[in-house]
Amino acid sequence: MRKNISSLLQKGNLTPKQRYLLIIQNDIARARTGKEILTEADIKGLEGWHAQTNEEAREWNKYNEGWKLGGRAGLDAEFIYAETKAEHFRANIIGYELAFYPFYREHLNALQALKRIKVVDIKEAIEITNKQREWKLKDGLDFDYAIYQLAFESLSDELRKDILTLDEEAEYEPSYLNDEETIADLLNGKDELTKEAKEKYAELVADRSYNKFAKEYQLHLSFASLPIMDLAKKWAKDKGIKPRKKDYEWLEKIKHRAEKKRIKKALEKVINERSDEEWVLEESIKEILEDYARDNKTTIKKILKETLLKWLEEGLPYPPLVINDNKKTYNGEIKLTPKELFKEWLKTKEKARETLQKLIDKGELKAEETGQDKTITGESLYNFKGDFKFIKEFKERVDRYDANAGFIYADDDPEHKGENIDRELLIAEKDKDGKPAVISIFGMSLKKIERTLKPSFLKEVEKNGETYLEFKSEDIEKAFKDTRQSKIDGYAKLLAFQEIHKKLSKIYEVDLNFYITPKVKQVSEFIDLHNEYLDNALEDITGLGVGFGLYKKPLKTRKDLFINKDRIAPDFNTTEEYGKKFYEILGDEYKF
Q1: With contact defined as beta carbons under 8 Å apart, do 458 and 470 qualify?
Q2: From CA 293, how far away is CA 311, in angstroms rounded?
Q3: For 308, which of 9, 149, 202, 275 could close a Cys bridge (C-beta 3.0–4.6 Å)?
């Protein structure tokens, strides 16, 4: 190239455009690498050239004027970038509070829980403890559940281990074995269900999926060994239904958060146990079912029932214990076959029933009947002299104060109507309002922690059952929205300048985007950071858990404060304004 340039210069047969482009390319090479492609003599020769005709002069001036205008465009882009950058850092003080808001929220939530601790003197503490004890004794123990507990503790270690292999919660949760008894009754000594029994079984499973109190379907539940989620997935498979594109956003969000919190490897290990499609289907199947039921004028219950009836025609999907001879189970191998184990369980349970009934008949335990329910009274259980484990546990529970039991006085108790007696108690000095005295250690600590944790710019507002994150004042909101808009405007204008530089790069046969592209990239990162801050602020928190009353609903914002980069187009005014000027100078070479 060096020899070619020298040869061309010596012959003097370069066009004005070629001469000008060589000068520009040399300037760009020096700016990017610090090295020039032309010698000092070459540059003098190129710059010292004089046009011989009016046409040559016009050609030289054309590219010279175009380059000067490109320089002004570059200065404008620099100014836009500097202004956007300054606005970004001006907003960072609010951004940081957004980023750390989950920390504020969780700890302020915990602080509110501390404030709910009931401040009492020693006399009140004893009275409350005794009151709770009275109510526990009044509750007693359901007769059927007492039978279950006595039966379970009466099992041999080997049988108990086998049952816990089948269901790890079986010691205190009777639903699994009770469901198996229901299926055994439906089989009625046969290996297959009759048509009527299949209908009943399918009805029971479909009913289990619906929570009447929450008024929603809960697909994570099971009936005996049949996970209702598997039933829902079978329906989807039979229908050829797969997760929708939007459903994968959930998994991508989880992966993104895991990457931020540096638990990516641990999450991948869990996720890789199944395909992305399986994970997403489980997460979205409830919404898919709801949409299908609405669009086809049916119900989820009917869908699940019909799917199970179809499955039952193919054979029992999960063999009931009463007819299962396979010792290898999903959770591991057991000593007896499920069929033998179930038989032993029924024998043990019947003996437990007889034992408790004899104790009631002899008056050692007392039972009360309310409708179809039968309850062993708490007083008789507490005074019982026998050595049953479940009764010992009942006595311990009565004597233990449960601060988070969530027990509420009955409305017919005039002294404590509607009062929650189960709360953590603080025996401390109180003020006239029954709160911790300000001069007490607890009271002073609460005030200090609250002042430290209180956000400067943000607040939460409850409305119509939703929790919204809002700004503390109109001025703060305006400042945030102004900086948000400045990022959008700045990004749009820089995209416009990027388009302009792309066209100039073709005309001057050199890459001019090395200058503008990094600025576009950085403003793009400013927008990503803006969205990340908001995403962090709205993140779900549970504090210490629902059981401690510290659950808080996910936050929302009344208006969409995120920035969708994909919807930001190059600023039309910028491209039009400069486009007209470049077209006046460069003509058809600059098309816009």
Answers
A1: yes
A2: 20
A3: 202
| Pairing status of strand 210-211 against strand 118-120 | unpaired
Domain borders along the chain are 2-50, 64-109+472-589, 142-192+327-401
Q: Are 436 and 442 in contact (CB under 8 A)?
A: yes
Neighbour-count burial of 35, counting CB atoms closer than 10 A to its CB (0-12 exposed, 13-18 middle, 19+ buried):
exposed
DSSP string for residues in 216-255:
EE-TT-EETTEEHHHHHHHHHHHHT----GGGHHHHHHHH
Question: How many CB atoms within 10 Å of residue 432?
Answer: 6
The pLDDT of residue 368: 92
Report the greatest alpha carbon distance in the chain: 130
Inter-CA distances, 196 with 134, 136, 201, 309, Å: 47, 43, 9, 11
pLDDT at 524 over 90: yes
**Pairwise CA distance, residues 461 & 468, whole Å:** 5
Beta partners for 469?
A: 460
Tokens of 91: 């907003």
What distance, in Å, lies between the first and last C-alpha atoms of the chain? 33
Q: So what's the pLDDT on residue 106? A: 76
Q: Of 158, 152, 197, 191, give the one whose Cα is nearest residue 324.
A: 191
Structure tokens belonging to residue 211: 């929570």
| Cβ atoms 223, 205 nearer than 8 A | yes
Tokens linked to 311: 């499955």
Residue 236 has pLDDT above 80, yes or no: yes
Q: Mind listing the pLDDT tens digit for each residue in 285-320?
A: 898 999 999 999 999 999 999 999 999 998 878 889
Q: pTM above 0.70?
A: no
Give the Cα separation of 573 and 282 in Å (integer). 48
Q: How many Cβ atoms sit within 10 Å of the Cβ of residue 189? A: 8
Which whole-number Å values give the CA distances from 571 to 212, 343, 488, 492, 576, in the listed order? 54, 78, 10, 5, 9
- Residue 472 token pair: 């503390």
Q: How far apart are CA 96 and CA 59, in angstroms?
A: 54
Both tokens of residue 52? 């011989």
Neighbours of 337 (CB within 10 A): 15
C-beta of residue 490 within 8 angstroms of C-beta of residue 482: no
d(CA 275, CA 294): 28
For tokens 């455009």, name the residue: 17
